[in-house]
Amino acid sequence: MRFPYQLQSHPVADPASVVTGERYRITVLTDGLVRLEYADDGDFEDRASTFAVNRQLPVPDFRVLEDGGHLEIVTSRFRLTYDQGSFTTSGLSLAVLGGVSAYHSVWRYGQETRDLGGTARTLDEADGPVPLESGVVSRNGFAVVDDSHSFLFDDNGWVTADNINRTDLYVFAYGHDYAAALAAFYAVSGRTPVLPRFALGNWWSRHHQYTAESYMALIARFCSEGIPLSVGVVDMDWHQVDVDPAHGSGWTGYTWNRDLFPNPEKFLDELHESGLRVTLNVHPADGVRSFEDAYPAMAAALGRDPALAEPIAFDVTDRRFLAAYFEVLHRRLEADGVDFWWLDWQSGPYSRVPGIDPLWMLNHFHYLDNGRDGRRALTFSRYAGPGSHRYPVGFSGDTVISWASLAFQPHFTATAANIGYGWWSHDIGGHFFGARDDELATRWVQFGTFSPIMRLHSGKNPFVTKEPWAFPGPAQEVMTSFLRLRHRLVPYLHTMNHRAATDGLPLVLPMYYRSPKADEAYQVPNQYQFGTELVVAAITEPADRRTGLAKVKAWLPEGTWVDVLTDMVYDGDRTMYLHRDLTTIPVLAAGGAIVPMDGRAFPGNELVNPGHLELLVVVGADGDFELLEDDDTATGPLGRTRITYDQDSGALVIGPAHGGADAVPATRSWTVTFPALDAIVDPAATADGAPTPARIDREGTRTSVTVEDVPAAAALRIDLGGRPRLRRNDAAERLFTMLDRAQIEYRQKTRVLDCATSAHPLAVRLSGLQAMGLADELFTAVGEILLAKADDPPRSELT
After folding, report:
1. What span, in angstroms and rounded, lies between the C-alpha atoms of 46 and 56?
2. Which of 95, 62, 56 is nearest to 78 (CA)?
3. Residue 446 C-beta-side C-alpha neighbours within 13 Å
4. pTM over 0.90, yes/no
5. What is the separation, in whole angstroms, between the first and last Cα of the chain?
6. pLDDT per residue over 41-82, tens digit each?
7. What are the start-end ranges of the E strands in 482-559?
């Protein structure tokens, strides 16, 4: 019987890529990826596995050399040496070519490999770092995915775990070309799908016994506060949880609690009318009990007598059960209006069939089922191993509320890219334990805004909540502004969403993908690339009480960088501490960066292609960005708008939109904002070569140019004049502001300001500050301002 849900796969490699012996088979998949199989019975595996679904790749160039019983396979990236016997440490090795390291870049079978880490199944109850599973990149130049024990897919789309007593390894030998290693991973394991656009906005989630009325009142309050949401999560109290103990616990359920939700369809309709998509939490491990509304139909589907009221065990390895699980349990709830499912599987990796992990099965089949009508699919569940990137979004588990927990999440999120897993969703603000800490909650929201998925969440404790208005003024204002910013960033995020699917580069990447040979890139765990244009340094420790500033160690690659949230300008090619008050975190863009945003200051819940776009453009170097827009269907055309900036001429050109006519607005307004621009003359605007009216606004350190009602087919040009410059930081003003709010002696404030802004050379000023014996937090904060840019003047007019 052909199972109705089947992942497209091409698991059989081209025979020209294969070198075979009596008990071994070697498949050269790419110039840097080789599959190594050994089986005593000489029977090798050609079915798709949970990791490898596509082995039918173009045959790379390679040479096969045999000498005295030894076999060598050589590509441009590696030299494999094998004695053609059982796999042993002495008999099977692979040397990475290309100058990584003559000593450390040799992989030997059986030796422990030390890669840069991948990700983990869950952060449940973790209070700080957890061990990471392997990834496919390493400073030694090689990494291994062991596929020996993965379960397999047959030609009918069903699963089996009969691949016993076999060795099946995939050795990645890409040196420090991490992007190429990741591309090879996706080539074999399948691409990351494009997420529905609504997944990129703010999610609301709380384990709380809501009623339909109280949930809708909450959504209305968010709206009145001007805080947008795109996904409403309803935790497990949507279903009956207080059940007769004879049935077990109420953890699993499929029947609406009509005391709380008397009209589920009306409730879900109201959420949709408010611009939200909806997911319900399910814990499927306890199967279906006789109290469920769906029990009679479920029993009938499985050929059982419902009058016996015998519980129906959850058995994901039974295809009849799995078919009924979808068609009976979930279809009727989806007909009510459920958009996708939060699969909260917490019952381990074991099923009735050894080797088949229920979490894998749930992720795989739920994702395929959700996309059954040709729509963009989505599921929400824990990570189950290599290949899980095919089933976004990931739920990282019940997070402990602590600074240690927050401090690990940037690193955890970024390194997941090393195993292709780009769409983690964390409990932003934490789930349980810990203590109330408004600063911690605020910093978590800031990190969440610059995370793959932004999902506010709280555990079932009346004192644990994440509504911004539940926090005092400063924290509330900051949370609100960042949640609005998240929705404003969706045009950028959705472009990166497409890039992740087509180019194989996740939204969040470790810094060493940018500069793999720089030691500094490996020493900033809280810093990461956020798409092609931004670098974020998350703040994950409390502020110093005296300065009111928190700090993070950051590495700035070569070039000039602008913090697009504060307009502070920095010289690159160095490591330094960056300090920020509660209102902001470092979000850096290099010269030439172009960041498209929703032009509305108060974006709504519904994430559509906006009629007003704002571009953040950092001058100083050429820039090129292609904005991607669609109708949010799996088959609709893609609209492409190329945006370029030329530093020599100072011209920003927004090209005409191509393709996706139904997705791109026929006309739209454009605002082009230049952070930290040293504006000398007024910019000029032309559309298709003809002058066009433009509004010029200068606010603080930035200049904005707005042109309204530009046809999608027109080219818009903004001219700044030749070789525009970034303005100098007003170091004296920034120092005064920082010292003014510092909780230190007034006399010390004056001494620090006088010394820091004197006419003496910078080295003399710094040595004078050092001699004052300042606290480290104050000294490094002053030093950041003085050292940010080499040509910043020491003094300005202070008022």
Report:
1. 11
2. 95
3. 28
4. yes
5. 81
6. 999 999 999 999 999 999 999 999 998 889 999 999 999 999
7. 508-510, 527-530, 534-537, 550-556
